Amino acid sequence: MKFSFWPAPMQPYDQVLALAQHVEGTGWDGIWYADHFMPNAEDTSTPWPEAWTTLAALGAQVPRLRIGTLVAGNTYRHPAVLAKMAATLDHITHGRVVLGLGSGWQENEHRQYGIPFYTVGERLRRMDEACTVIKSLFTESSSNFEGQFYQLQNATLEPKPVQNPLPLLIGGGGEKVTLKLTARHADEWNVWGDPTILKHKMAILDGHCADLARDPAAIKRTAVALLFMSDDQDYLQKMRDAKLQQPHLIGTVEDIRSLAAEYEAIGVDELIVPDFTLGDQEQKVATLDRFITEVARR
Question: Whole-structure pTM over 0.85, yes or no?
Answer without folding.
Answer: yes
